[in-house]
Amino acid sequence: MFQNLRIGKFFFWMLLFIPISIAVALLTQNKTLLFITSILAIIPLARILGYSTKEIALQANPTVSGILSATFGNIIELIIAVFALKSGLLRVVEASIIGSIIGNLLLLIGLSIFIGGLRYKHQHFNSETAGVAATMLIIAVVGLTIPSVYAFVTADASHIDVLSDAVSIVLALTYVAGLIFTMLTHRDMFDASDEIRMTHEKPTLTKREAGLLLLVATAFAALESEFLVQGIQSAVVNLGITQTFIGVVIIAIVTNIAEKSAAISFALEDKLNLAIEIGTNSAIQIALFVVPILVLISQVFGFGFNLSFTMFEVVAVVLAVMIINHLSSDGRCNWLEGAQLISVYCIIAIAFFFI
After folding, report:
1. What is the 8-class DSSP label of residue 201?
2. pTM metric for this prediction
3. Is 186 helix (H, G, I), strand (E, B) or coil?
4. What's the CATH fold of domain 2-353?
């Protein structure tokens, strides 16, 4: 199976950090080193998760591949968030949610458009499907903003948990409606699996092998996520970075490395529509699927997580969605627009470093 695993030499070498991180956890008390090695170990695991999911998509029907993508698309972010909630690191969870959304919308799509634009003077994408995704993102912004504004302007925020629960249910139902729309009633508009098949790429793993690999990678991702969370407090003290920056930038970038590499590859093949779908769908999944699950888990186990984000985080998401809405209006872009998206992400990331 491993001889058919084509994830690139870089990611194969990065797999060495899995046993290294385990050794650090068992043989030392250095939590900062544990944080660093676990972050590095998660990078190839994210790549393997993305690769095995794609391998199954090449061989499965569109509905199965869509459900699989919806389930495992952001599994590492979800696992890290659950461990962080368990450890009381609410700031990290909130920041990683915001970081994943703006990272997918600004950095992932920005890199895809920029790098693809260096090869092709103009690239085109389906503005209709991008418009549907943009509307879903606006709904996500409303869901994340309303509870936050309520907590900000109301002196008595005793109802914030109930409000968060109700909004989470609406977001989850909207996500389910979106899945029905994209996979059943209007599948012809969104069937990315068919577009992948049109590349004539042949699977290198059987469905059984890819499924087993998916489960093994998820198990190791859970282990490394626990190591990462154990080392956050030490990293904050010894590396001079805040929990907010760890969540918004470090965790968000590392856990989405597979999506970024896939999106850039598609952009270089002049399949920008797929690249943009990867970014927008991942951001939508975080806001409408992962967030409601985290709120539910928090309510069941009393972790205290709700949809009350800081005003700076809300503004960052609003700006990201506004820019993507503007970008998706004409179905055409160039490298400069990619550079502009990247520059906005860098400005926001720099600001979060000081928060």
Report:
1. P
2. 0.89
3. coil
4. A middle domain of Talin 1 (1.20.1420)
